[in-house]
Amino acid sequence: MTATFSHQRFLALAATLCLFIQAHAQELRSYQGHFESDNALTIQITDGEVTLTPVGPSALEIHYRRDGLKQLPSFAIASGKKSGPEAILSEDEGKFSYRVGSLNAVIHKSPFHIEYLRGQERLLSEESGFFASDTLRGFRFALAPGEKLLGGGERVLGMDRRGQRLPLYNRAHYGYTTESPQMYFSLPAVVSSNKYLLLFDNTATGTLDLGASEQDILQFEAVAGRTAYIVVAGETYPQLVENYVNVTGRQPLPPRWALGNFASRFGYHSEEEVRATVDKFTEEDFPLDAVVLDLYWFGADIKGHMGNLAWDKKAFPAPEKMMAELNERGINTILVTEPFVLSTSARWQEAVASNALAKNLAGGPKRFDFYFGNTGLIDVFSKDGRDWFWNIYDGLLDQGVSGWWGDLGEPEVHPADTVHAIGMADEIHNAFGHTWAQLLYERQTAKYPERRPFIMMRAGFAGSQRYGMIPWTGDVAREWGGLQPQVELALGMGLLGFGYTHSDLGGFAGGDKFDRELYIRWLQYGVFQPVYRPHAQEHIASEPVFHDRRTRNILREYVKLRYRLLPYNYTLAFENSQTGLPLMRPLFFENESDLSLLDVKHAYLWGNDFLVAPVVEAGMDTVAVKLPGGTWFDYWNDTRYTGDQALVPVDLETIPVLVRAGAFIPTIGDINTSRDYTSKTLTLDYYAHKSAPASSSYIYEDDGKTANAFALGKYEKLHFSAHRNTRGLSFSFKREGGGYAGMPESRTITLKIHNWQAVPATLEVGGEALPRLLSEKAFNQAERGAWYHKRAQQLLVKFDWHRAPLTLTVKNP
Fold first, then answer.
1. Euclidean distance between CA atoms 92 and 457, whole angstroms
2. 475 is catalytic
3. pTM value surpassing 0.85
4. Among residues 289, 338, 407, 504, which one is catalytic?
């Protein structure tokens, strides 16, 4: 009681002090003059200066500076974005405007403040704007009535965070379920229902108050750090996301194997256990692409070994041979690493001698105790720390490691009196994981430019996606309450550039006994989220191959479906690398006029054409699925749904998965690993409906591993389109791109036309009639032809597609 009361009193006093400072600052602050230089506008004001810099399409950085106020470099803005598009400056009586793209900053001279417009529409406005005292700095903005605010990073609070006061300090939340205001990956940014994005480019400990203390005020507070914010505007939500990642950086395309199935647990204790697990996947006919080794690879126990970062040769006597043999089977090895070096570890003295560790106030290595032992923290902000850390990674890459799992990178424990090369802990805490990922990405791509890095990390900052960071949602409880917020977490992060946010499938923490239904539901959902990685504490197996026959049989088909969908999923990954569009997309992307869709947190779009609603409660036989409008088909049985809600029946073998009318869904046959991937034989499921008279799609293809394949021209796009008229359907097929190693010269296409009611009068491919076949068996055996499946109301067409464009016509009877 006493501690809580004291904390509340402190917050109230701090808020009162801030208001006093604001009133005083607004009274005194006024315009003194301005100049343009290097495509930026700098304005002198009575208490310092502010610079407005175009940093991308419809995006501005606003940086306030005052003498004696320490500044840090921008962590959010991607390199080169300071030379953004040209802005247009115009003056009027008492104010002037600075416009870039559709974003117009209107600068009022006295009292000085800036408001932002899109055309004539007001987006947001500084209330009293910038403030700074000896212990607090930040900004205040006015909020519009009814405005919804999404974002803030990983939180479990509902999609709309307005009315919340959000701590900005990356911190672990072990065993969370249905509520968490503070987690592993906080982001000082919000997306507004008014289609702007506001990012505070400050990595220090702080708070984002979204109308909690004052109903119509957004207030950012930090104890130190850069006094800058970035405003981005967009005409649509997808365009807003694209404009944002143009500023903060696009996620590079990962290797194709990153979309496959992972074997992972806490953890594999020995080489023998790793090999036995991989063999079990083969024995049970489960595809597999990666095995993830937790901390036992460098120590026999949980405590006392962190920082060794070298193989425990008793448990792993021949790691290079093991990894090489796994690689021959198409299985990649991922190792966990942490930024802590225990004083009991084999590398402690080496780290100290190399000046790799953060300092205490006396200039020596900072030591402190936490769960794993007495430790120091690698200073990733110092050149010595980065060099020492990279040398370890480089050696492991030479041994055959394929990817990295960076754990505890908030950092999980980070004493405030820790001294880093560029500042104190509380100044740069939230940039630690970001800078760690930058180290790995930049050093690896410099030495191995042909490789696509795989970097999975638990914490970072705005813009970390440009370093290939793949976040997960931390140590979630292994219970229904842990599954329920996973869509919300992924959608919120995807809006801010982190399109690969995923969960430990099945749940990580706790669980007294195996819950078959929960486990199956979580792994079914996993097929339609970015990374398929079951992971958990080992007292209950995380891998499906170690569970009962019914569980295995259900999930085997889902894991195989994940691989069949690789053409679709890999294209989503490509789109993300080009535009920033997340793989999991909120329903309001589909109908931007319906603000109620902003609150939907249990259903989402998987790419453009799937709508998925995971089953998140026990014993469900029907799920009410919110629809964003349009016509949708059940993926499992072709049942058609329209309106604003679908009541979808489910059993243990199905979850609601709907496909939009007019969609093309590409799939391949079954494979054992993504290394076997080929689109030489391709199935296209097309969902015909009168509400979609014209539609088009494509799949992106390359070799799955070459870095920058698209920029190098080493790719192919396969374009498909359909047009419906009174006479029937016509399809067009076109290939584009410079080609890649292993590209099929021709493909066998099976086109499945769903929702087709009769045998067609004629059916031609490239002007030639196709033979009509009378049975499914005859169709499967034929090299080309067509068969009408009357019971399923599907028309199946098989033909070869060479390099030239091709047309297929289906005429009504």
1. 49
2. yes
3. yes
4. 407
